[in-house]
Amino acid sequence: MNLVWIICKKELKSYFASPIAYGLMAFFALIFGYFFYAAVAIFVVRGTEMQMMGRSMPMDLNEWVVRPVMMNVSVIGLFIIPMITMRLFAEEKKTGTIELLATSPVTDLQIILGKWFAAVLLYAAILGISAFDLAILFLYGKPDGMPILISYLGLLLQGSCLLAVGAFISNCTRNQIIAGAGTFVVCLLLWVLDWVAAYDTSTTGKVISYLSVTGHFENFAKGVLDSKDVVYYLSLIFLGLFLTTRSMESLRWRA
Amino acid sequence: MIKVDGLTKRYARNVAVDNISFEVEKGQIVGFLGPNGAGKTTTMRVLTCFLPPTSGKASVAGFDVLEQPIEVKRRIGYLPETPPLYPEMEVKEYVRYVGQLKGVAHSELDAKVNEACERCNVADMKNRLIAKLSKGYRQRVGLASAIIHNPDVLILDEPTAGLDPEQRKETLGLIRELAGSHTIILSTHILPEVEQTCQRVIIISKGKLVATDTMENLNSRLRGAEMVAVEVEPRGGDLARETVQQRLEQLSGVSRVVFKEARGQRLSFEVESLQGRSIRAELARSIVSADWNLLELHAAGLSLEEIFLQLTGAEKAAPGGTK
Fold this sequence. Notes:
The complex is a heterodimer.
Chain A: H1 2-17, H2 19-52, H3 61-85, H4 90-95, H5 98-102, H6 108-140, H7 145-171, H8 176-192, H9 203-210, H10 217-222, H11 227-254
Chain B: E1 2-10, E2 15-24, E3 29-33, H1 40-47, E4 55-60, E5 63-64, H2 69-74, E6 76-79, H3 91-101, H4 106-119, H5 135-147, E7 153-157, H6 165-178, E8 183-188, H7 191-197, E9 200-205, E10 208-214, H8 215-222, E11 227-234, H9 241-250, E12 254-263, E13 266-273, H10 280-289, E14 292-299, H11 304-312
Parallel strand pairs in B: 3-8, 3-9, 6-7, 7-8
Antiparallel strand pairs in B: 1-2, 1-4, 4-5, 9-10, 11-13, 11-14, 12-13
Helix pairs in contact in B: 3-4, 3-5, 4-5
C-alpha cells in the first residue's frame, strides 16, 4: 500500500510538472463556466417569465441548474479522460523508464493502482474546480446540498471507470497518440450506447443501453444513489484494472 | 551469487540467448562481452526479472527469477543501457524515488540518497532537473540510483556507452571502487574496458556462450601470436607490393602477411607471428636492409571480432588476404 502511494505521488507530480494538469484544468474551468452561466441564465429568464405570467410555480435550482450542468460535465469528462490516461504507460514504455518499475521490488498491481489513483486524483481535482461555480448558487439561493454531493460521487465513479479503461489502452501501446485516440473512441462509444434504447426496446437493446456509462449517471445527476449504478461502475473499474494487469503480464512474455 | 543454467530466450522469430550457463561468485567483477546483438542485454534482462526466460533457470542470491522475482529484485541494482530517468524530476528527487521503490527504510532514506550521490559524483547537481543534465551526468545519476539500496548484485548494461574518454575513465574507476562490497556484472563491447576492470569475462556471440575465463588466462590464450602493423615506402618507387609481401613472408617466425591498403607509394601490411615468437625487431631490420623506408611499425591489438574468430575457431573459415 505504501508503494502504491509512492508511485501515485510521483505520477501526480509528473502531471503537475508538465502543462497537462494545468491545461486540462483551464479547459474544464472555461467549458464548465460557460455551461453553468448558460444554465443559470435560462433559469433566471424562465423565472421572470413565470412571474410575469402571474404563475408562481416554485422553481427548483437543483432541477433547473445542477442537474443539466452535471449531465454536461459527465460528457465533458469523456474528452478529458483520454488526455489524462494516454501518457500513463505509453510514455514510460516509449522512454524505457518502465524498466525501472519492472525491475524494482514492486508488483504489477501496485504499479497499476498507483498510476490509476494518480489519474483519479487529478480528475477529482479538475472536477473540484466546478465546485467554485456551484458555490455561487449557495450564495444567492437555497439548492439542496445532498443531491449535489451524490452527483459528484457519480462523476467521480464514472471518471474512475473510464480512467481504468484508459489505463488499459495506454498499456497496450507505446504511442501516446494511439492510446489517447483509442481511449477517446471507447469513451465515445460507451456514451452513445444508450441512444439505441430510444427506439430499440428489445432485450438486446436494453442490454446494450445498460452498458452505457452516461446512462448510469442519470440517476446520480437526479441525486438518486442506486446500488445498481454503483455496482456497474465498480465492476467496470475492476474490469479495466484487471485487463491492465493482464496486459502488463502478457507484454513481459511477448516482449 | 548468480547462477545461470541452460538459459534460453526466444523472441517471436529469433533466438536471442541460446542455452547459456555460467556462475558468478560473490564480490567478483565480471565482464559480459559480446558484439552488438549478441544477447548481452537479453541475459541481463532475464537476471533482473524484466523478461522471463523461455527455458532454463537463473537465480540471484539463491532466489529464482521466475519463482521469487520480488526477492531477486530487492537484491539487484540495475542500470539499463539508457538510464531510466524521468526528465521532469530533480536529481535528488529521482534518486529518492528509486530508493523508496527499492524499499529503503524511510529513516535512512535521506542519508542513503546523499551517500549515493556523493559516491557517483552528482552531489553538486542534486537540485538540477534531469532534463538539463549532460549524458555523462545522466549516466552517473542512473548509477547512483542503482546503488541506492546497497544491493548485493549490480548489473550494468554498457555503463560507458556514449561517454567521452574522461567520463569513461571516471565511471570505470567508480565501478572498481564498488567492487569489494558488490558482485558486479557489466556488459560492454569494448575490450580494453574489460581488461581494466574485470577479473573474469564471459564472452557471448550470437546468443551462444563462447568462453568464460579469468582475464589472465584469456590474455595468454589470445596473445600467443603477435600482430604487427607495418607501413612501408619502397624507395625506388616502382616496386610491386608482391615483392614486399614475399620478403616479409620469408622472415622466420612470420606465419602470415596480409596486405591492407596502398596510399600512393605507401603500402600497409598486417603481419602475424607464429605462436610465442616476437618478430618486431626482425621485421624492422629486414625492411631497412632492403633499403625501403619504414614509416610505421606497431603491435596491433586484437579487436573484439578477431577474438571471437580466434575463440570460436572460425578464422579457418575466413578467407585470408582480405581485410
